[in-house]
Design brief:
It contains 6 helices and 11 strands. The longest helix has 22 residues. The protein is of the alpha+beta class. The two termini are 22 Å apart. The chain is globular and about 50 Å long. Belongs to the P-Pant transferase superfamily. Gsp/Sfp/HetI/AcpT family. GO terms for molecular function: holo-[acyl-carrier-protein] synthase activity; magnesium ion binding. Pfam families: ACPS.
């Protein structure tokens, strides 16, 4: 699997990602977009694009900057999907698939609620938003580089092998390596469809290796399932990872929205 930068697909009102992959790629490919969120309060034009559940979630947030980031990211996701699928951003049927663990749609992975619609994954952190779109299950996670108490968190987030690699590193490499482990793990759990509902120490992400790496989990499946995790190049100040099935082929495209 290779990674390259490609142009955003244009809105031709004919092709959906259920039939043709991002930027016309072959089955298993993914398109990844990232963007900055700079508003300090939710913008009216972004708020107007959100669905009822999204507005309810944003309204429960006490921190206005966090609400602005959430609203801005969800609005950008809808604009991008409208350009890919055709139609109006406010009309994109964005919802959730059932959680593979419990069957609930309250916390299942995001999805375009169309027959044969694409699989999605959404992430945002510290003013950067990301969207991954694929015809196969996909997970993306981004984390802002920031002060992290790595030694305190290592025991509940890293495997013994990961700790041996990460904890001996000097700063700031230690924090970056820790966040690389975190984004790789969360990308896989998002691709599975359950999110962080299990012990992160159950996933081995090989922090000493540059991506792509293979991460195996039996969460929500009768046996071990391998996932191919790629480190996504984003602007300095963030770390991001993308997970796709290990059997997926094709090219991953990455670009600024």
């Amino acid at each position: 699997m290779s990674t390259r930068v490609a142009e955003l697909p244009r809105n031709d009102h004919t092709a959906s990602l259920g039939e043709a992959g991002p930027a016309g790629e072959t089955a298993g490919a993914a398109g990844v977009w990232y963007w900055r969120v700079t508003a300090e309060s939710p913008r009216h034009e972004d708020w107007a694009l959100l669905g009822e559940a999204e507005r309810h979630r944003a309204g429960r947030m006490r921190d206005e900057r966090s609400a602005a980031e959430y609203v801005g990211c969800r609005a950008t996701v809808r604009r991008l999907l409208a350009r890919i699928l055709g139609g109006d951003p406010a009309g994109v049927p964005l919802g959730r698939r059932p959680c593979p663990g419990c069957g609930s749609r309250e916390h299942g992975p995001p999805a375009v609620l169309l027959p044969g619609g694409p699989c999605l994954s959404i992430s945002h952190s510290g003013g950067l938003g990301m969207l991954a779109v694929s015809r196969t299950p996909v997970g993306v996670d981004v984390e802002a580089l920031r002060d992290v108490h790595v030694t305190e968190l290592a025991g509940v987030t890293l495997t013994a092998a990961e700790q041996q690699v990460v904890l001996v590193m000097p700063e700031p490499r230690r924090t970056r390596a820790f966040l690389r482990c975190w984004t790789r793990k969360e990308a896989v759990l998002k691709a599975v469809g359950v999110g962080i509902t299990t012990s992160l120490t159950a996933l081995e992400t090989s922090p000493g290796r540059r991506g792509p790496v293979e991460v195996t989990t039996d969460i929500a499946s009768p046996g071990p399932v391998p996932w191919r995790v790629t480190d996504i190049a984003v602007p300095g100040g963030w770390v991001a990872s993308l997970a796709l099935p290990a059997t997926a082929g094709g090219t991953v495209t990455v670009q600024a929205a």
